[in-house]
Amino acid sequence: MSQAIPGGDQSNTFVSLIVPAYNEARTLYSNLETLHAHLQELPFEWELLVIDDGSSDDTGAEAIRFADGHDGVRLISHSANFGLGQALRTGFHNAQGDILVTFDSDLSYAPEHIDRLVQTMQTTGASLVVASPYMEGGSVTGVPRMRAVMSRYANWMLRRLSLHHISTVTGMVRAYRRDFIDNISLKSVDNQINAEIIYKATLLRRLVIEIPGHLVWTRNEEETKERSGKLRYVTMIIDSIFSGFIFRPFSFFIVPGFILFVLAAYSLGWAFWHFLTFLPDQSGSLDAVISGAAADAFALSPHSVVIGGISMVLAVQLFSIGIISAQSKRYFEELWFQGAWLADAERSGERAARLDGESIRRDG
């Protein structure tokens, strides 16, 4: 069960700290001790929920050992490794708090971020607060250079695609309001869940705020090599592309379509210029003049005509797909928003009916 903190200014806020863990047996127990000790100093009710995402080492055993000796800790284990998205969804589903804070098990963010996330949510009324190392005032320490550059660029790209002010779209250290999480249906099972949540917060017109975060790479040399390999970089690129596609799918068709259109215009423009230069040299009927000039232009630069023609066809197709995807995205957003609104109205009606029933019983 959760534990109220003795002493200090008590509040009605109940915070669930959700900590996904995968193959973290080496440091999990000590890191959970650090988090648990910090939570005991905070002036609100809390619970610590650890999600073992099908670890192949002793992560689950270490979490059980810790939970058995400490109050306010619960463990949920997956039978297999499903990915970060499923781990967070499991945490959201089982958490009991009014505010849900998701946190890295390796403590790459100091526990003090928890206080700031919760306080910011309470003072601003935001539905989502993000700890952002890439905003002004944020910082990154000890992260391998290539990984840091790719992460910063990926978040820059996602910020532009989302047309949002959030500088760290992919970050997991966040605070959520319970009513917001209850109103969205999450589908992602991997890292794309962080971008999906921001996207759906935008659809619901919810207030999203970021605070400066300090990301400190806490891995040893062996873990750094493992987590910074080529496969990890490829995975990061793929995750960024899919996350960007969530926000603005039509951009992935319009942009390459525009590039192909420019290439087609350049190639066909040169072919047309050659056609015009050969016109005065032709004789005979109008059809013969046009045909002769076209034949001479093609013979001079056949690749311009072929490349330009193919590029123009592809550009038109990509433009068409982009327009269709934009329309589909708009229809999806309208339907999803209406569904979320109706679900919230239904839950509000159920709560009102329950409160009315309790009031009648008290009056009786």
How would you describe this structure to a colleague?
- By secondary structure, the protein is of the alpha/beta class.
- The protein folds into 2 domains: 14-247, Spore Coat Polysaccharide Biosynthesis Protein SpsA, Chain A (Alpha-Beta Complex); 251-354.
- The chain has 12 helices and 9 strands.
- A 7-stranded mixed beta sheet has the order 3-2-1-4-7-5-8, with helices on both faces.
Structural class of the secondary structure composition?
alpha/beta
Low-confidence stretches are 1-10
User: What's the CATH C level of the largest domain?
Assistant: Alpha Beta
Indicate how many domains the architecture comprises: 2
User: What is the strand tally?
Assistant: 9
Separation, N- and C-terminal Cα atoms: 33 Å
CATH A-level architecture of the largest domain? Alpha-Beta Complex
What is the H-and-E element order? Answer: EHEHEHEHEEHEHHEEHHHHH
CATH superfamily of the largest domain: Spore Coat Polysaccharide Biosynthesis Protein SpsA, Chain A
Shape: elongated
Binned, the helix content reads 55-70%
List the helices and strands and how they pair.
Blueprint: E1 14-21, H1 28-39, E2 45-52, H2 59-68, E3 73-77, H3 84-94, E4 99-102, H4 112-124, E5 128-132, E6 139-141, H5 145-162, E7 174-177, H6 178-182, H7 193-203, E8 208-212, E9 214-216, H8 221-227, H9 230-247, H10 251-278, H11 286-300, H12 302-363
Parallel strand pairs: 1-2, 1-4, 2-3, 5-8, 6-9
Antiparallel strand pairs: 4-7, 5-7
Helix pairs in contact: 1-2, 5-9, 7-9, 10-11, 10-12, 11-12
